[in-house]
Amino acid sequence: MKCFITKEFCRKPRSLNDIDRWKATELRQFFLSTGPVVLKSVLRKVLYNHFLLLSVAIRILADRKLCLVMNDYAGSLLRWFVSHYGELYGPEYITYNVNNLVHLASDVTRFGCLDQFSAFKFENCLQAIKKQVQNSQGPLHQIVNRITEENALPIQTQYRKSYPVVHYSRSAIKIKFLEFDGFFISTEDYENCCRLNDDSIFIVIKIFSDSNVLYIRGNKYSNTRSFFSVPCDSEKFGISLINEGSISERITLLASQIQRKCFKLQNPEEITSSVVIIPLLQYNY
Predict the structure, then answer these.
(1) Residues in contact with 246: Cβ distance below 8 Å, sequence separation at least 6, in sequence order
(2) Starting from the edge strand earliest in sequence, which strands make up the sheet with 165-168, in order?
(3) What pTM does this model have?
(4) Is residue 59 a contact partner of residue 237, using CB atoms and an 8 Å limit?
(5) If we measure between CA atoms, which residue out of 223, 203, 180, 222 comes closest to residue 263?
(6) pLDDT under 50 in the chain at which residues?
(7) What is the reported pLDDT for 156?
(8) Are 248 and 205 in contact (CB under 8 A)?
(9) Per DSSP, what are the bridge partners of residue 138?
(10) Helix (H), strand (E), coil (C) string for 182-233
(11) Which run of H or E residues covers position 163?
(12) Closest by alpha carbon to 37, among 262, 225, 267?
Protein backbone atom coordinates (compact mmCIF):
# COMPACT_ATOMS: atom_id res chain seq x y z
CA MET A 1 0.00 0.00 0.00
CA LYS A 2 2.81 2.46 0.86
CA CYS A 3 4.14 2.56 -2.68
CA PHE A 4 0.79 3.82 -4.01
CA ILE A 5 0.61 6.86 -1.72
CA THR A 6 1.67 10.14 -3.32
CA LYS A 7 3.98 12.76 -1.81
CA GLU A 8 1.07 15.09 -0.95
CA PHE A 9 0.12 12.88 1.99
CA CYS A 10 1.88 13.71 5.26
CA ARG A 11 2.43 10.05 6.15
CA LYS A 12 2.57 6.64 4.55
CA PRO A 13 -0.12 4.23 5.79
CA ARG A 14 0.70 1.91 8.67
CA SER A 15 -0.72 -1.48 9.61
CA LEU A 16 -4.12 -1.64 11.29
CA ASN A 17 -2.26 -3.37 14.13
CA ASP A 18 -0.83 0.08 14.94
CA ILE A 19 -4.17 1.92 14.78
CA ASP A 20 -3.97 2.91 18.45
CA ARG A 21 -0.86 4.93 17.54
CA TRP A 22 -2.19 6.48 14.33
CA LYS A 23 -2.21 10.25 14.14
CA ALA A 24 -5.32 12.16 13.10
CA THR A 25 -4.02 12.68 9.54
CA GLU A 26 -3.54 8.91 9.17
CA LEU A 27 -7.13 8.25 10.24
CA ARG A 28 -8.33 10.88 7.80
CA GLN A 29 -6.32 9.34 4.98
CA PHE A 30 -7.87 5.96 5.76
CA PHE A 31 -11.55 6.84 5.84
CA LEU A 32 -11.39 9.38 2.99
CA SER A 33 -8.96 7.74 0.56
CA THR A 34 -7.64 4.24 1.19
CA GLY A 35 -10.36 2.82 3.46
CA PRO A 36 -13.10 2.50 0.81
CA VAL A 37 -10.70 0.40 -1.29
CA VAL A 38 -9.01 -1.65 1.43
CA LEU A 39 -12.22 -2.55 3.28
CA LYS A 40 -14.31 -3.53 0.26
CA SER A 41 -13.14 -7.14 0.25
CA VAL A 42 -12.80 -7.35 4.05
CA LEU A 43 -15.99 -6.09 5.69
CA ARG A 44 -19.46 -7.58 5.47
CA LYS A 45 -21.55 -5.67 2.93
CA VAL A 46 -23.77 -4.02 5.55
CA LEU A 47 -20.73 -2.74 7.49
CA TYR A 48 -18.94 -1.61 4.34
CA ASN A 49 -21.96 0.33 3.11
CA HIS A 50 -22.32 1.93 6.54
CA PHE A 51 -18.66 2.99 6.43
CA LEU A 52 -19.23 4.53 3.00
CA LEU A 53 -21.95 6.78 4.45
CA LEU A 54 -19.30 8.47 6.59
CA SER A 55 -16.58 8.43 3.94
CA VAL A 56 -18.75 9.95 1.21
CA ALA A 57 -20.29 12.57 3.52
CA ILE A 58 -16.91 13.79 4.80
CA ARG A 59 -15.45 13.81 1.28
CA ILE A 60 -18.31 16.10 0.21
CA LEU A 61 -17.88 18.43 3.19
CA ALA A 62 -14.09 18.57 2.72
CA ASP A 63 -14.40 19.51 -0.96
CA ARG A 64 -14.38 23.27 -1.57
CA LYS A 65 -16.84 23.01 -4.46
CA LEU A 66 -19.17 20.25 -3.26
CA CYS A 67 -19.47 21.27 0.40
CA LEU A 68 -22.24 23.78 -0.32
CA VAL A 69 -23.99 22.41 -3.42
CA MET A 70 -24.32 18.92 -1.84
CA ASN A 71 -24.50 20.04 1.79
CA ASP A 72 -28.03 18.75 2.44
CA TYR A 73 -27.17 15.36 0.97
CA ALA A 74 -24.04 15.07 3.12
CA GLY A 75 -26.09 15.97 6.19
CA SER A 76 -28.62 13.24 5.42
CA LEU A 77 -25.81 10.67 5.03
CA LEU A 78 -24.35 11.60 8.41
CA ARG A 79 -27.74 11.39 10.13
CA TRP A 80 -28.26 7.97 8.55
CA PHE A 81 -24.79 6.90 9.69
CA VAL A 82 -25.41 7.92 13.31
CA SER A 83 -28.94 6.49 13.45
CA HIS A 84 -27.69 3.00 12.48
CA TYR A 85 -24.43 3.15 14.44
CA GLY A 86 -25.87 1.60 17.60
CA GLU A 87 -27.53 -1.25 15.70
CA LEU A 88 -24.23 -2.32 14.16
CA TYR A 89 -21.70 -1.64 16.90
CA GLY A 90 -23.74 -1.36 20.10
CA PRO A 91 -25.34 1.70 21.77
CA GLU A 92 -22.45 1.93 24.24
CA TYR A 93 -20.21 3.10 21.37
CA ILE A 94 -22.40 6.07 20.43
CA THR A 95 -20.07 8.64 21.97
CA TYR A 96 -20.18 12.42 22.00
CA ASN A 97 -17.97 12.51 18.89
CA VAL A 98 -20.33 10.20 16.99
CA ASN A 99 -23.37 12.31 17.89
CA ASN A 100 -21.57 15.48 16.84
CA LEU A 101 -21.39 14.22 13.25
CA VAL A 102 -25.03 15.22 12.67
CA HIS A 103 -24.04 18.90 13.09
CA LEU A 104 -21.11 18.91 10.65
CA ALA A 105 -23.13 19.87 7.57
CA SER A 106 -24.62 22.94 9.27
CA ASP A 107 -21.15 23.91 10.55
CA VAL A 108 -19.85 23.80 6.97
CA THR A 109 -22.70 26.07 5.88
CA ARG A 110 -21.54 28.62 8.46
CA PHE A 111 -17.75 28.33 8.24
CA GLY A 112 -16.91 26.81 4.85
CA CYS A 113 -15.40 23.42 3.97
CA LEU A 114 -14.07 21.30 6.83
CA ASP A 115 -10.48 22.43 6.42
CA GLN A 116 -11.53 26.02 7.05
CA PHE A 117 -12.10 25.21 10.72
CA SER A 118 -10.38 21.88 11.37
CA ALA A 119 -7.48 21.45 13.80
CA PHE A 120 -5.33 19.29 11.51
CA LYS A 121 -2.83 22.06 10.82
CA PHE A 122 -2.12 22.30 14.56
CA GLU A 123 -1.51 18.56 15.00
CA ASN A 124 2.27 18.88 14.82
CA CYS A 125 2.50 22.14 16.80
CA LEU A 126 2.56 20.61 20.28
CA GLN A 127 6.35 20.26 20.33
CA ALA A 128 6.81 23.89 19.27
CA ILE A 129 4.41 25.05 21.99
CA LYS A 130 6.22 23.00 24.64
CA LYS A 131 9.52 24.66 23.70
CA GLN A 132 7.99 28.05 24.48
CA VAL A 133 7.54 27.06 28.14
CA GLN A 134 10.73 27.66 30.16
CA ASN A 135 9.49 26.67 33.64
CA SER A 136 6.42 25.51 35.53
CA GLN A 137 5.34 29.01 36.61
CA GLY A 138 2.47 30.35 34.49
CA PRO A 139 2.88 28.19 31.34
CA LEU A 140 -0.11 29.78 29.60
CA HIS A 141 1.27 33.28 30.17
CA GLN A 142 4.63 32.21 28.78
CA ILE A 143 3.06 30.81 25.62
CA VAL A 144 0.95 33.94 25.07
CA ASN A 145 4.01 36.17 25.55
CA ARG A 146 6.10 34.16 23.07
CA ILE A 147 3.33 34.20 20.45
CA THR A 148 2.86 37.96 20.95
CA GLU A 149 6.60 38.48 20.42
CA GLU A 150 6.58 36.35 17.25
CA ASN A 151 3.61 38.28 15.85
CA ALA A 152 5.44 41.57 16.48
CA LEU A 153 8.31 40.55 14.19
CA PRO A 154 8.31 42.12 10.70
CA ILE A 155 6.74 39.87 8.10
CA GLN A 156 8.71 39.20 4.95
CA THR A 157 6.85 39.94 1.75
CA GLN A 158 5.50 36.74 0.23
CA TYR A 159 5.18 36.60 -3.52
CA ARG A 160 2.24 34.75 -4.97
CA LYS A 161 3.34 31.88 -7.18
CA SER A 162 2.17 31.63 -10.75
CA TYR A 163 1.17 28.00 -11.34
CA PRO A 164 2.31 25.65 -12.63
CA VAL A 165 5.87 26.09 -11.34
CA VAL A 166 8.47 24.15 -13.31
CA HIS A 167 11.11 22.20 -11.38
CA TYR A 168 14.07 21.01 -13.44
CA SER A 169 16.48 18.14 -12.88
CA ARG A 170 20.07 18.86 -11.87
CA SER A 171 21.09 19.10 -15.50
CA ALA A 172 18.55 21.95 -15.90
CA ILE A 173 17.50 20.39 -19.21
CA LYS A 174 14.82 17.89 -18.32
CA ILE A 175 11.68 18.91 -16.42
CA LYS A 176 11.53 16.89 -13.20
CA PHE A 177 8.01 17.81 -12.07
CA LEU A 178 5.35 20.51 -12.18
CA GLU A 179 4.07 22.18 -9.03
CA PHE A 180 0.41 23.20 -9.00
CA ASP A 181 -1.58 24.84 -6.21
CA GLY A 182 -1.69 21.99 -3.68
CA PHE A 183 -0.16 19.12 -5.67
CA PHE A 184 2.74 17.95 -7.85
CA ILE A 185 2.76 16.10 -11.17
CA SER A 186 5.74 14.14 -12.50
CA THR A 187 6.34 11.17 -14.79
CA GLU A 188 7.12 8.83 -11.87
CA ASP A 189 4.80 5.91 -11.24
CA TYR A 190 1.96 6.84 -8.86
CA GLU A 191 2.86 10.55 -9.15
CA ASN A 192 1.67 10.88 -12.76
CA CYS A 193 -2.09 10.35 -12.58
CA CYS A 194 -4.49 13.28 -12.93
CA ARG A 195 -7.95 14.35 -14.04
CA LEU A 196 -8.25 16.74 -16.94
CA ASN A 197 -10.70 19.60 -17.30
CA ASP A 198 -12.98 17.31 -19.32
CA ASP A 199 -13.00 14.85 -16.34
CA SER A 200 -11.10 12.14 -18.22
CA ILE A 201 -8.20 10.26 -16.58
CA PHE A 202 -4.70 11.02 -17.83
CA ILE A 203 -1.40 9.23 -17.11
CA VAL A 204 1.57 11.54 -17.77
CA ILE A 205 4.58 9.93 -19.46
CA LYS A 206 6.41 13.08 -20.59
CA ILE A 207 6.55 16.75 -19.59
CA PHE A 208 8.20 19.23 -21.94
CA SER A 209 8.28 22.86 -22.98
CA ASP A 210 8.11 24.30 -26.46
CA SER A 211 8.35 28.05 -27.11
CA ASN A 212 7.80 28.68 -23.38
CA VAL A 213 4.56 26.70 -23.41
CA LEU A 214 4.25 23.65 -21.12
CA TYR A 215 2.92 20.39 -22.53
CA ILE A 216 2.17 16.94 -21.16
CA ARG A 217 2.14 13.75 -23.19
CA GLY A 218 0.52 10.55 -22.03
CA ASN A 219 -2.40 8.13 -22.08
CA LYS A 220 -5.96 9.38 -21.85
CA TYR A 221 -8.68 7.10 -20.47
CA SER A 222 -12.19 8.25 -21.31
CA ASN A 223 -13.93 4.94 -20.55
CA THR A 224 -14.34 4.65 -16.79
CA ARG A 225 -16.78 2.89 -14.49
CA SER A 226 -17.95 3.26 -10.92
CA PHE A 227 -16.10 1.71 -8.00
CA PHE A 228 -19.19 1.70 -5.76
CA SER A 229 -22.85 2.63 -6.21
CA VAL A 230 -24.04 2.86 -2.58
CA PRO A 231 -24.88 5.36 -1.17
CA CYS A 232 -24.37 6.98 -4.59
CA ASP A 233 -22.37 6.65 -7.78
CA SER A 234 -18.67 6.99 -6.87
CA GLU A 235 -17.98 8.83 -10.14
CA LYS A 236 -19.86 11.85 -8.78
CA PHE A 237 -16.72 12.46 -6.73
CA GLY A 238 -14.22 11.37 -9.37
CA ILE A 239 -13.64 7.91 -7.86
CA SER A 240 -13.47 5.60 -10.87
CA LEU A 241 -12.19 2.31 -12.19
CA ILE A 242 -10.01 2.10 -15.28
CA ASN A 243 -8.36 -0.80 -17.04
CA GLU A 244 -4.73 0.24 -17.52
CA GLY A 245 -4.22 -2.59 -19.97
CA SER A 246 -6.99 -1.41 -22.27
CA ILE A 247 -6.33 0.58 -25.41
CA SER A 248 -6.02 4.25 -24.53
CA GLU A 249 -5.47 7.39 -26.53
CA ARG A 250 -1.90 8.73 -26.41
CA ILE A 251 -2.02 12.47 -26.91
CA THR A 252 -0.20 15.72 -26.17
CA LEU A 253 -1.99 18.44 -24.21
CA LEU A 254 -1.33 21.78 -22.58
CA ALA A 255 -0.30 21.35 -18.95
CA SER A 256 -3.01 23.86 -18.05
CA GLN A 257 -5.58 21.14 -18.88
CA ILE A 258 -4.75 19.38 -15.59
CA GLN A 259 -7.61 19.84 -13.13
CA ARG A 260 -6.42 17.85 -10.10
CA LYS A 261 -4.09 15.04 -9.15
CA CYS A 262 -5.27 11.49 -8.46
CA PHE A 263 -3.68 8.41 -7.01
CA LYS A 264 -4.08 4.79 -8.04
CA LEU A 265 -4.84 1.75 -5.90
CA GLN A 266 -5.27 -1.84 -6.98
CA ASN A 267 -8.88 -2.93 -7.14
CA PRO A 268 -9.21 -5.69 -4.48
CA GLU A 269 -11.90 -7.42 -6.55
CA GLU A 270 -10.01 -7.31 -9.86
CA ILE A 271 -6.34 -7.13 -8.88
CA THR A 272 -4.92 -7.88 -12.32
CA SER A 273 -7.38 -6.06 -14.56
CA SER A 274 -8.31 -2.68 -13.07
CA VAL A 275 -7.17 0.09 -10.75
CA VAL A 276 -9.13 2.53 -8.62
CA ILE A 277 -8.58 6.22 -9.37
CA ILE A 278 -9.14 8.54 -6.39
CA PRO A 279 -8.81 12.34 -6.67
CA LEU A 280 -6.80 14.14 -4.02
CA LEU A 281 -8.58 16.63 -1.81
CA GLN A 282 -6.77 19.93 -1.52
CA TYR A 283 -5.86 20.55 2.12
CA ASN A 284 -5.12 23.85 3.83
CA TYR A 285 -2.32 22.48 6.01
Answers:
(1) 221, 223
(2) 165-168, 175-180, 183-186
(3) 0.85
(4) yes
(5) 203
(6) 284-285
(7) 67
(8) no
(9) none
(10) CEEEECCCCCCEEEECCCCEEEEEEEEEECCEEEEEEEEECCCEECCCCCCC
(11) none
(12) 267
